[in-house]
Protein: phospholipid:diacylglycerol acyltransferase
Amino acid sequence: MAMLRRRKAPPAPPPPPPSEDHSSTSPVASSSKAEVNETEKAKASEKVRKERKGRWSCLDSCCWLVGVICSAWWLLLLSYNAMPASFPQYVTEAITGPLPDPPGVKLQKEGLKAKHPVVFVPGIVTGGLELWEGHQCADGLFRKRLWGGTFGEVYKRPLCWVEHMSLDNETGLDPPGIRVRPVTGLVAADYFAPGYFVWAVLIANLARIGYEEKTMYMAAYDWRMSFQNTEVRDKTLSRIKSNIELMVSTNGGRKVVVIPHSMGVLYFLHFMKWVEAPAPMGGGGGPNWCADHIKAVMNIGGPFLGVPKAVAGLFSAEAKDVAVARAIAPGVLDSDFLGLQTLRHVMRMTRTWDSTMSMIPKGGDTIWGGFDWSPEGGYECNPKKHKNNDSHASKDGNGASKDVDGETVKSQSQSVNYGRIVSFGKHIAETPSAKIQQIDFRGAVKGNNVAHSNASCREIWTEYHELGWAGIKAVADYKAYTASSLLDLLHFVAPKMMQRGSQHFSYGIADNLDDPKYMHHKYWSNPLETKLPNAPDMEIYSLYGVGILTERAYVYKLSPSAECYIPFQIDTSANGGHQQNCLQGGVYLADGDETVPVLSAGYMCAKGWRGKTRFNPSGIKTYVREYNHAPPANLLEGRGTQSGAHVDIMGNFALIEDVIRVAAGATGEDLGGGDQVYSDIFKWSEKINLRL
Structure:
């Protein structure tokens, strides 16, 4: 049995787990366990906190960004206020070289002094408007600016602002319970918004040679209204007459130099007829009033013959820039997006502004061209640039412009039919007229109301709601519109607006200026239907920018079928490409100042009034002064001192110098021999077959 092994005993079972009965746990063990649990909880809490700290929420990012922007703003503001006043100029000169003296300083050194009183006539939208009476939504805004300044109320209460900026759709005067009036004094239009000058630079330079408020007068008026209605409601024309008479009598009998800008050019043209016309329609000043009180009228950027841009604004509440925005964000500007319905509000408001109808193109196809011709035909959209604003472009025997080196500027035909101001489709704009089949819209029956079911559409009423789908289709089927047929188009799509406008404005060419009907005030702002005053010693200047592509004609399309849309819009997909670069984003471009084409700004002084004509029977001398656009070289130059843009030209040193010299006593011949021309205005004027 020795060989037998003894079996091992089985392993002892593990000890039982400790009892959960806390009553049997000793106080020391219990305390130790609690400490362990607390430590673990603290570690877990710290871990969660670190994880949360590592995550960066959108709110954190926004707060951080706002903090950085505010800190940077306050730091820059503190630095700006702490630095010497000459430091910005020092930095600019270090980068760009020495800056030229402002015109006022330059001419002061030459010994020029204030002589003739100066009258400023602002244009559309540049003059401030303030509230004198309003509805409940406008509480707290008494004598606060609704137009100009910061435009704060546009953002705070947009619908209330639109309501108070609109005029009565029947009378063109104040709506019941609302009184908005023009701001008075030089501050009315010195700045359009903080930092955005209009007249301020010119005023400051005039002050350098001795001008002050008693020798400068801002002829502010409510630019929304028809010109005659500014007299009916506010007696504005009478105030201008009285102020000019006062300035002449208190300044030794020296006549005034009047400086209108933009639509102010048409307003003052109306004034010159009004002031000499007998009462009650006119001011009763007699036939020699202008000769006795006005030395010169220096028109800046004057739309004498209208602007195509006005048609686009009335037809679809658009211009080139708005059309681009409308294409980038389809439906945002003209739908119910966020309840804004922006374009329809804009259209409803601006169609109550009768003044906009003063800038519809005048002279019909005779001036603006027909289906297959236009005065600017063959214009090249990449013309040879001139060296600077001081160069004087001469003319050869045929009236063609020559550049600074004496080389005739030639343009290559690009087959642009500028005479077709509105075309439905790019192919229509380019097709020969013989191949275009038009269906006359004038007898079309309006119907199938486009806003019959949508309450929000009816709340923002425009005349398109009464046009109906049948009327919309009829407009598009006519295919192309020239300056003559545009008037019929606007009467068809906006009869109520045009009915008001036809009481105050006319767009034709007079056959017989001695016809008594032309004594009516509606003809007075059309230079083709009225005579200049009998003032042979007076001078008239046309000062405007050139070298900027300017809206001249449009390619349209129908908007997507939706009840609340404005039914027509510029077709931004229409482009000419390299072979026809005058067509950009549905807009045909020609030479001008970005708003007014050269043809409108220059024709009357280049030909229509040049010498003794039936429109200028006393032979008032006229001068064309063009300023070739040169953009600022860098951001430090701001809006530049050689700009030819429609508003920025008010800071153009060459223009300001011309104005100051005339105000100080110079004549047109003293300004470098008279005309200063860079464009083809004389050549284009010769293409216009108008009896003079």
